[in-house]
Design goal:
This protein is mainly alpha-helical and about 250 residues long. It has a domain at about 1-55. Helices cover about 55% and strands about 10% of the residues. It contains seven helices and five strands. The longest helix has about 35 residues, at about 10-45.
Length: about 250
């Protein structure tokens, strides 16, 4: 980054950065290897044709994970948080409304601070509140499990975010600070699908892009409706053969 700015960077700083990056990459590789190793044994434990088959072990791994995630979900709900999405090892939360009261007043339905500043403040508040919640959850897990091995990790704030179905969502990811120019985070939303026409891919992309704009004031339903209306207006320019192929 410093080189891109035309600034001088000492050899010592370059060497230190290279060393830290190497250590970080090694730790990531070890963590991934351990995850693959454990998942392999879990898979074999539930495989009736495997010499490592042990139904009780596989069942306990699943039930223990479900129990812990349910305990955490119940805990945070009691604290006023909303759970928008959860699976076997993760939760997407919404902070209590009162956390945003001051920035709501500053925005004043568009009569105060800009919408981007309003959203930025909401993201910052979410980061601070979730970090505190993470520590409380980890204390709870330590007391419940009798060990500090199992921990909750705070990863990111997704805002705005759209959930299109089970385990399918997209949004703008914010990790250390708000940045609404970040690349979209898309999880299992099938924008590119075999047999889908180029036109349909463009429609999908337009709906997603419009729904993520800071100045957007429409609901997702309204956006889809407007995009479909544009399609009807431009019907003569559409590759109908491609559309029929996709529909079939």
């Amino acid at each position: 980054l410093a080189e891109a700015r035309g600034e001088n960077v000492t050899d010592a700083l370059k060497s230190e950065y290279s060393s830290v990056s190497f250590i970080d990459a090694c730790l990531d590789a070890k963590s991934l290897a351990l995850k693959v190793y454990m998942n392999t044994f879990y898979g074999e434990a539930r495989n009736s044709g495997s010499p490592f088959f042990l139904r009780a072990l596989a069942g306990e791994v699943t039930s223990a994970g479900q129990r812990n995630i349910k305990l955490i979900a119940d805990l945070i709900r009691r604290k006023g948080f909303g759970v928008k999405y959860r699976d076997t090892d993760s939760l997407y939360l919404v902070c209590p409304e009162e956390c945003f009261q001051k920035c709501d007043e500053a925005y004043d339905n568009g009569n105060g601070i800009s919408k981007e500043e309003y959203w930025s403040r909401m993201v910052n508040i979410s980061m601070e509140v979730i970090e505190r919640l993470r520590n409380e959850v980890n204390d709870f897990l330590r007391n419940d499990n009798g060990s500090s091995y199992l921990k909750m990790a705070y990863e990111e704030v997704l805002f705005p975010v759209v959930f299109t179905g089970k385990k399918k969502y997209y949004g703008i990811s914010h990790r250390r600070e708000p940045n609404f120019n970040n690349k979209l985070f898309i999880r299992r939303v099938e924008i590119v699908k075999r047999g889908q026409s180029k036109h349909f891919r463009e429609v999908d992309k337009k709906v997603i892009d419009e729904s993520m704009k800071v100045d957007n004031s429409h609901t997702l339903y309204q956006i889809v409706k407007d995009v479909l209306k544009e399609i009807i207006n431009d019907i003569l320019q559409i590759d109908l053969t491609g559309m029929v192929k996709t529909a079939v």
